[in-house]
Amino acid sequence: MAEHQKLVWIIGASSGIGASLAQLYARSGWRVAVSARNEQKLKELAQDATQFDVVPLDVTDSGQVAAVIQQFHDGGKLPDLTVYCSGLYYPGGIDVLTEEHSVASMDTNYFGAVRVIEKLFPLLKERGNGHIAIISSLSGYCGLPEAACYGPTKAALINLCESLKPDFDRVGLELSLVNPAL
Ligand SMILES: NC(=O)c1ccc[n+]([C@@H]2O[C@H](COP(=O)([O-])OP(=O)(O)OC[C@H]3O[C@@H](n4cnc5c(N)ncnc54)[C@H](OP(=O)(O)O)[C@@H]3O)[C@@H](O)[C@H]2O)c1
């Protein structure tokens, strides 16, 4: 990787918005580290470019999150931008509302982001710069039909980012909250 090439780490890059973002950043000349559980899909995304690093990761495993971030740190290249895209969506209302679905949704959508921020923030602070972008959802602003397990996880993310913004500002780090429709 060229010394001044920027590095974006996209978590939840094996499909959808994360995969599209990865391709967009690679085309714009960034080095792109792509994470998700499905290593095969990440490799397919990365196959036709020398711009990608495939970094398999399950965000529900705090040991894996810590190890991946330590790997960036030890390699002397923490991401300039980290985009947290990982998401789990059980479409439905009362028909899908179980403790199991709700806990699983919270674990991936909310606690995964917490794990990443907890481990990355001190290292970015030490470096003196860095940007974390959290993909939440408009459904976090008010309860929508078909989002009984999903919406509360996105509300939690919005609240978390609002709460943490002054801490990032104080040390010169950037925190963005992105709320696509639905
Ligand atoms: N698409 C929309 O219209 C829309 C609207 C509002 C908000 N959003 C939000 O935008 C984000 C991306 O949405 P999308 O539509 O692109 O969804 P998607 O295609 O289903 O992608 C979700 C990504 O999350 C990853 N993921 C799920 N569980 C994971 C885990 N335990 N560890 C690591 N990665 C995990 C998936 O990869 P693996 O399965 O390989 O792990 C996949 O790469 C989500 O947070 C979603 O809530 C999307």
List keywords for this structure.
alpha/beta, 6-stranded parallel β-sheet, about 45% helix, 6 strands, about 180 residues, binds NADP nicotinamide-adenine-dinucleotide phosphate, Rossmann fold
Folded structure, characterized:
The chain is α/β, with parallel strands linked by helices. It has one domain: NAD(P)-binding Rossmann-like Domain (Rossmann fold), CATH 3.40.50.720. The chain has five helices and six strands, in the order βαβαβαβαβαβ. A six-stranded parallel beta sheet has the order 3-2-1-4-5-6, with helices on both faces. Strand 5, helix 5 and strand 6 form a beta-alpha-beta unit. NADP nicotinamide-adenine-dinucleotide phosphate (NAP) binds next to helix 1.
Please describe the topology of this protein.
Layout: E1 7-11, H1 16-27, E2 31-35, H2 39-46, E3 52-54, H3 62-74, E4 81-84, H4 99-127, E5 131-135, H5 151-170, E6 174-178
Parallel strand pairs: 1-2, 1-4, 2-3, 4-5, 5-6
Helix pairs in contact: 3-4, 4-5
This protein binds NADP nicotinamide-adenine-dinucleotide phosphate.
The site of NADP nicotinamide-adenine-dinucleotide phosphate has 26 residues, from helix 1.
Report a brief summary of the structure.
With 182 residues, the protein is an alpha/beta fold.
